[in-house]
Amino acid sequence: MKNLLKIMFVDDEVNVLRGMRNSYDWDALGFTIVGEAGSAALALSLARQNQPDVVITDICMDGKDGLTLISELKEQNPATEVIILSGYPDFGYAKSAIEKGAFAYLLKPLKNAEFFETLARVRAKILEEHSQTASLFLSQLLQLSLYTQEGISSLEAEYGIRLPSGSFFLSVIRPEQPDPSVGRESCKKLLAFLRKNYTAPSRLLLCRKGGEHPHITALIFCGSVPVQTTLCAQLEEVGKNFSSQTGLSLSIGVSSLFKEITSIRDAYLEASWALQQKTVRPDDQLFFFRSSSGESSGHAGQPSAMLSPAEQKQLLAGIRTLNRPLTEQILNQYFSRLNSTKSINWDMLKNSLAELAVQILSTACATPEMTKLIFGRKPLPAVEILSMTQLSEMQEYIRRLTGRIFDHAGLIRQIPAQLSAPVRDVQNFIFLNYPFHISVDSIADSLHMNRFYLMRLFKQETGCTINEFLTRHRVEMACEFLKCRECSISEAGANAGYPDSNYFCKVFKKQTGLLPSEYRSRQSQEELCSTDSAQK
Fold it and tell me: Where, per the database record, does this protein carry 4-aspartylphosphate (predicted)?
């Protein structure tokens, strides 16, 4: 059986330990024995050294009882599951054990059916937790700002995951559903099915993605192209079984084989773009990425000409908050990098920029009607960018797209039509200029209006002062930036118009009741809970 979990026994009777070791086929049950201890003290030492997933312990031992051992094991490693064995059918003992975090309380002599059922339940619980941790790890791995070995090692330490060394490829597996909400539900079913049925000998990590095209991302380690081909054939067969059971069609995109994990973002882009072959081969399920020359494009160590996940998140945050300085800064840096890149895979670049344009549009325009109001028609970046032949054309297309969005800030922010023209102008000015140092005087000067008349009119129509409106909007935008993992607290404040981080914290606390760090922590907890519940 694959994925053997580590188990340890604790009892002060040697015969009991021997019986636990020899009476059961632990491999068949899904466990490997990593320690036996005749005392609580030795148990803690072995647990610290071997990190068992499960500890089976007697309730009564010389020197320290099992209840105390539960507490100390949990303090040492909260993920360790403890099963108590006891010869005393005492409800108080059982209640205390469960309250201290024991998984189960079983009575001696053990009944095989009950014991095996308990082991199966604890194994399922641990594997589910491991899968969720792996999914979160892979999700964060794909969003790193800099793909360095140091950054990846730090992430491994944070999640308690050690990636294998050697070559890898990445697969994107997508249920073909026109409705994203239905697609997300299909992904949940597919994720559970793959965990159960796709037992690749190399390490496999999965994470469910949201958005317009929900999909599964699989990171698979293997030593050679022939092995990759075999693993992909197995994946395709599992996909066909899933389709036959659910009636859902799948598309599986596969990247080249890469040598360095620092190239994982390029592998993800390749697997995603491989899926585009579906349009010309609609009856196929498995699609391998090939460069325009027909060869695999996975070359470790080459700098990527693509927008990094961190840059993309900050750029979209700039669009969402109508922060022109931040948006232009990210685009300028990205385009400068593109212009200095000597060798570019044009197919990959065009698809990347087309995808970026679509994301910019969907971020800025909540409805098709708004898109039409801003652009006069529905932009078609997948067609327009793919037809271009010059890099400068593509860059100008993206700039025109963002420029139109900023020019229609009032429409995007849905300024109430019943407000007078001067008040609408004030709000529009704030929406576009909040990152800068602005005041009532500078607003009045820019609009060529008397400041006192403007202040009185604004208060009369909105119920708040211009400064109150500005502060509220800046804090709302700061909240958006704080949701961006790659944006520091001081950067979030500066992006929202508060270059002094101390003053920013003071204003934010007054408006929200929380410090920026507390708000970010709460958002992270809510996101984690949301991810956990979505995967159950």
Answer: 58
Nearest Cα residue to 161 out of 200, 125, 129: 129
Rg (CA), the chain: 29
For 421-531, list the strands marked E by DSSP: none
pLDDT tens-digit series, residues 116-175? 999 989 988 887 777 778 778 887 787 665 567 888 888 888 887 888 878 899 998 988
Exposure pattern of 363-401 as b/e (b: 16+ CB <10 Å)? ebbeeeebbeebbeeebebeeebeebeebeebbebbeeb
Query: How many angstroms separate the CA atoms of 181 and 168, rounded?
Result: 31
Burial class (CB in 10 A: 0-12, 13-18, 19+), 111: exposed
Return the ∠ at Cα 123 (arms to 118 and 128), rounded to 5°: 130
> Among candidates 421, 471, 414, which has minimal Cα distance to 447?
421
Phi, psi of 514 (to 5 degrees): -130, 150
| Tokens of residue 311, six digits | 């840059």
DSSP H helices, 365-390, are 368-375, 381-384
Taking the C-alpha atoms of residue 221 and residue 215, their distance in angstroms, rounded to an integer, is: 20
Beta-bridge partner residues of 6:
32
Record the pTM: 0.47
